[in-house]
Structures are given as C-alpha cells and as structure tokens.
Inverse folding.
C-alpha cells in the first residue's frame, strides 16, 4: 500500500477505532514476528517498515513468499476456523511499527465496520493476483525485467522517505533473486546492468531506485 493510500485508510473511522483498540509494538530489524507452526492469537497491521514472509520447503530450504509494507495486514489466515497454526514465518526487514490485534477484537470491530473485512479481502485478492502474475511471467520474461519489476513494485509500495533522487530499498541479492525467480548471482549481475542504465544506484545492501524510472512498464 502506498503512503497516500495508507493516509486515506488511516482517516477511515473503522481504522481509527482499530488503532485505539490494538496494541502498538516497535520492532527492530531482523526480528521474528510470527514463527511458522506457532499457535495463533492475533493478526497484525503494519504502520511503518517492511517485513518478509517466508516458509521452509521439504528440503528445509528458505522460501521467500513476499515483502509486505505499511498498510498491509498479516497473520490473518488464522481468522479462518480450519487454520490452527501459522503457515509461514514473518520477519522484519527494517525497523517496524505494527499493531497487534486480537482476533476477537478484529471480528467485533469488523462486525460494526464492514470496511475492515473489505480491506482485508482486497489485500488477499491483490496478493493472489501478484503471485499469479509472477508465476505466469517467470518462464517467459527475461531475468532483467523480472528483477526490475520486483524493484519497481517494492519502491512504489515502500514508505521510505523520498529524497528527490530515488526510493531507498534494503534487500539482499538473495532475497531479490527469490522474488524474481533467479539466482543470487544473476540478481547481482542484473543490478549492475540496471545501475549502468541509470535505473538504480547501489550502496551495499541498499538499492536506490530512481524515481523517474519507477513508472516504466518494464
């Protein structure tokens, strides 16, 4: 969710009541918020920062599903009665501020404010569309454009301060490759090509995505 959209949602009376009813937590970078397989008690709403959603596959290898940003809910799957345990790990990528919302609190508020259910359902639908698009594009789209597509989407959704030069992102080459469906080495090589094209600037793990290029269709 972009910052303007987050600002619009935050003025909704339903969300204002949610903000008052929930417990706000400040979390440092690289903190596990949800552990895969843990018993659920609440869902979360990101006020600021970025988290990653991961799971372990049958070979116990880390699988990166998504990055999530300010305005996103997570941990909502356990609202459904047949889901008894966390299906993935959620870890902070940056320093974060999140709202911790008990399931009973959310259901009670959503009963009075259906817009909460609509927002949550809309986010689930958007994630499904994004996943379907990535799966469809991976076999046919060149790695350069897949990596750029991931960077542009992360930049559009990031709440990091704009400085007129670009949007700073913190993401490792390994995570970038997982999101783009390529190896860490290919992601690193593509980043250098994008730097030479003027679409990004590189500073260690930080990638500055040039704002004039974010809207490019590629």
């Amino acid at each position: 969710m972009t910052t303007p959209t987050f600002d619009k949602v935050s003025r909704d009376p339903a969300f204002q009541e949610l903000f008052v009813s929930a417990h706000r937590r400040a979390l440092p970078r690289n903190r596990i918020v949800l552990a895969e397989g843990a018993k659920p008690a609440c869902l979360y709403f990101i006020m600021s920062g970025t988290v990653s959603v991961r799971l372990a596959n049958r070979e116990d290898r880390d699988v990166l599903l998504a990055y999530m940003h300010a305005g996103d809910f997570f941990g909502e799957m356990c609202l459904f009665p047949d889901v008894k345990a966390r299906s993935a790990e959620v870890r902070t990528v940056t320093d974060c501020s999140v709202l911790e919302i008990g399931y009973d609190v959310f259901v009670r508020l959503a009963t009075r404010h259906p817009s909460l259910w609509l927002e949550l359902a809309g986010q689930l639908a958007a994630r499904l569309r994004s996943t379907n698009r990535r799966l469809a594009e991976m076999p046919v789209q060149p790695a350069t454009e897949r990596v750029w597509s991931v960077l542009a989407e992360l930049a559009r959704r990031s709440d990091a301060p704009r400085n007129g030069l670009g949007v700073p992102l913190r993401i490792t080459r390994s995570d970038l490759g997982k999101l783009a469906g390529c190896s860490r080495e290919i992601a690193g090589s593509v980043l250098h090509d994008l730097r030479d094209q003027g679409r990004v600037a590189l500073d260690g793990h930080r990638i500055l995505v040039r704002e004039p290029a974010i809207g490019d269709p590629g």
In short: The radius of gyration is 18 Å. The chain has two domains: 3-136, 141-214.
